[in-house]
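[SOLVED] Predicted holo structure with zinc ion

Edit: marking solved, answer below. Original request kept for reference. I posted the sequence and ligand SMILES and asked for the 3D complex as structure tokens.
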Amino acid sequence: MSFEVRYSDLAGRIGKLVTPHGILETPAFIPVVHPVRQSISPRTLRKLGFDAVITNAYLALRHYGDEARKNGIHKIINSDCIVMTDSGGYQVLEYGQINVEPETIACFEIEIKSDIPVPLDKPTGFGLGHAKARRYVEDTLKNAKETLELVRTRDSIKNNVIGQESYRSVEPIWVGPIQGGEHTDLVKYSAETLDKMGFELMAIGSPVEVMERYEFSILSEMIVSAKSSVPTKPFHLFGAGHPITIPLVVALGCDTFDSASYILYAKEDRYMHANGTLKLQELSYFPCSCSVCSRFKTKELLQVDKEQRIIELGKHNLHVIKAEVSAVKQAIIDGRLWEYVLEKARAHPKLMEALYIFKDLQIVKDGTPKFKKKAIFLFEPLDQYRPEAERFRGMVADFKPFNTKQKLVLYPESDIHPFYTTLQYRQIRKKLPDAQVCTYNRFLGVIPAEISDIFPAAHNLSLKNHVLTSRVEDYPTFKISLEKFLFTNNFNEVIVVADEFIKQILKDPNIKALCTKILDFDINAISKL
Ligand SMILES: [Zn+2]
């Protein structure tokens, strides 16, 4: 399997996944299509910009059987796009036990030439007790293992498939189905076991109910538990297809995600927009200029007969999803995924809550470039946790000047970056040539002048202090960073030119005890040093 990552930011990445039916650029939304009844055909979906679809192997087996075996799934759905096949596990969740063996489904998926087949899994859903969820996980792992063994050993099937058509140099990509629901220990165990088995593309299941309840924190924990175990492999999220969740799940490392929401919503006259969903009846104007929204006024679309209206609304919903995926991709290239995810999280308080999972997250640190072309924006306390800031504080914690210094001067950051180019810095140096001079910023912590040109110390734009909260409780990382820096360097003298923010920090008696001189930040401060 070939998966090439071209750009990354946070854990989000733009990559190329090579499949037997072409290259899929990720992140990608994969629309669900019914193998028998399609309101919007895969051909139309391709014209709308979707290079892959997912369909249900179990339903295809039941409805087409040998016809599908003979002609392949691409003929059945009349498209040469990339086809992922879900095993039918979701039907277990919907209708209880389904009457098919894992081996039957696996053979069928090989025979119909699925590009991205999924072994028969047993979705845990949401709300299952730990013991029962564990049994589901074990059942899924057993099926997955048997499927992989079957794929590896049944050369006869492979040879038959190859014999029927020109040789395919690219093999199908079998998916490792991660289950466990909200039980993150099971999710982790599931991901690690499938990884060891040798699956090349991982997929996490069961998030639909979690998302329907807007439990984005639980969804994020599920993704992180799985993703942290398999950070580099391509990663699919089953059942995610609403624009408000796309920035979050991509930023946590989901490369592909599928859903039928575009058409299911349309059936209920639900109109997706970038920040949520509205009933068609509630809309006076369309906040969109896709071909559907340009052609109809809201009242006119309501007059269109139901079947046609579903198709039109479905197309609009797909347009919104596509636009969201494209915006996320552009944010990855621009190095502005953090800003984008935060902006989009304002669509729902539970989305904003979920963002605290990004704190100190290794997969997010690893995916974020060390240097970016554009300055980072710092607006609110949550921004202290962005990986660039955490990385900078980590560097400062170990910082020691080339020549050991006895004296430290801490001076508030000015608008001019880097700090060593400012008039204030030159004045301080003139007055105290032997001192270690540092500036400070509530998001980044202490900034030694020597490294004040390193990203992002000189490459950030933050709100002016007077519009930011001075509550130190909102910036716990600052205090930790200051303490570590003072501990590493053990200065004899610590002179603080204190703005309103650091005055709050100095209320901590332990930190105050380390400071030998505290001056108000005013025009005469430097002369009093
Ligand atoms: Zn539209």
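OP edit: The pocket of zinc ion is lined by residues 286, 288, 290, 292-293, 316, 319 (CB under 6 Å). Thanks to everyone who chimed in.
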